[in-house]
Write a structure and sequence with these properties.
Elements lengths: L2 H22 L5 H39 L1
Length: 69
């Protein structure tokens, strides 16, 4: 798993925990934590899909080089 995906996943989990704690204490600040969790979740998916696409492109490039070379 790419390092940036792990970091953004950690931020997502921590933001969800912070949101739960904020709402449990009666604070509406949890809304901000939910928004941060959504952004970091999207970043996690982005970095995972980017790494997968990069691996596929490298594999295709290697296959083409093997056929022509």
């Amino acid at each position: 798993m790419p390092r940036l995906a792990l970091y953004s996943l950690a931020v997502c989990v921590l933001a969800v925990v912070a949101a739960v704690l904020s709402f449990a204490r009666g604070s509406w600040l949890g809304v901000v934590w939910i928004l941060l969790a959504g952004i970091s979740s999207n970043m996690t998916w982005y970095y995972l899909r980017k790494a997968k696409a990069d691996r596929a492109a490298a594999h295709e490039t290697g296959r083409e080089a093997g056929v022509t070379g």
